[in-house]
């Protein structure tokens, strides 16, 4: 039975480019999370290249989401007339709502950075 050819056993395609062009293509491959070879193959075959998300920003989003969850939990406790929050004043609740709005703004800012890079 005949073995199926592999990429490693096939002849490579050479691309001549200037150092700054290579650096540009390498940067795009890095942004997509691909090796230079995999990036060029996918572009050459007409595949759409999707960049990878910045893991630091995704971590930031997760933290902000956790903050919103905790703030929402406090608000829910207050709305349910739970004894643990009976001493909360209207000013405290308004401050909590303000903090939720601020956190939502922070979440939007981080999402904008993720989308626009």
Automatic annotation (TrEMBL):
Q: Which domain of life is it from?
A: Bacteria
* Protein's UniProt name: Protein TraJ
């Amino acid at each position: 039975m005949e073995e199926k050819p592999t990429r490693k056993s096939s002849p490579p395609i050479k691309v001549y480019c200037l150092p700054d062009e290579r650096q540009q293509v390498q940067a795009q491959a890095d942004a997509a999370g691909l090796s230079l070879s995999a990036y060029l193959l996918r572009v050459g075959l007409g595949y759409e290249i999707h960049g990878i998300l910045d893991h630091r920003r995704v971590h930031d989003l997760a933290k902000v989401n956790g903050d919103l969850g905790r703030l929402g939990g406090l608000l829910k406790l207050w709305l349910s007339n739970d004894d643990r929050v009976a001493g909360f004043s209207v000013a405290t609740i308004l401050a909590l709502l303000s903090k939720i709005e601020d956190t939502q703004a922070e979440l939007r800012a981080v999402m904008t950075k993720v989308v626009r890079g």
